[in-house]
Amino acid sequence: MSPANPGPAAAGEAPATRRRGGDLEAAIYDAVFAQLEAVGYRRLTMEGVATGARTGKAALYRRWRSKDELITDALKHVLPEPPTAPETGSLREDMIQILGCLRDTLLACRGAAFRVLKTEAEEGMGLVHDVVRDRLSRPVRDLLFQALREAAERGEIRPEAATRRVANVGPAVMVYQNLTEGGPITDEYLASLVDEVLLPITRP
């Protein structure tokens, strides 16, 4: 068979494209997030990702042995390095900046990280959860806790409000918003979350 007539694609596979390297990888990762957004973790398949990326299923299995490995690498590709403490000297501004990092990550992965975490809470999976926890959820909660402790030391809030439980409130509200309501998380939304929910529960 000549190169000009390569014959039909294998059954069940999307027609392969000529993309290679970074272009193909980007298409595959984009297809992962599109699948997570459309069908969720349980129904995501390697075949569905291959179809979305317009490549062959074999191209995926040459690099990833399972969908967990594929989702993990896709998340590593888009999740930023853990944020650093803003230390603005104002609890309000610190919280807005930290929660802004969380918002930007939601946009980068289309909320996929939090949909996966919701499913994992039900099914007890760990591989993908570890990536999201280490790169995003734990650093954000730690920074918020640090900001609360510093605000308590400045006398800005009551000392008993500087707890990890209070630090978890903002991210929990944002995840709930993303999973149930959808829509953009604007700067105005972040400001209202801080002003109407978080600050009132920390002050006398």
Structural overview:
The N terminus is likely disordered. The chain has two domains: 58 residues, Arc Repressor Mutant, subunit A (Orthogonal Bundle), CATH 1.10.10.60; 108 residues, no CATH class. The chain has ten helices and no strands. With 204 residues, it is an all-alpha fold. The chain starts with 20 loop residues before the first helix and ends in a 6-residue tail after the last helix. It is elongated, with a radius of gyration of 21 Å. It is 66% helix and 0% strand. Helix 5 runs antiparallel to helix 7, helix 5 packs parallel to helix 9 and helix 5 packs across helix 10.
Question: How are the SSEs placed, and which strands pair?
Answer:
Layout: H1 21-43, H2 46-53, H3 57-61, H4 67-78, H5 91-108, H6 112-123, H7 127-153, H8 164-167, H9 169-181, H10 187-198
Helix pairs in contact: 1-2, 1-4, 1-6, 4-7, 5-7, 5-9, 5-10
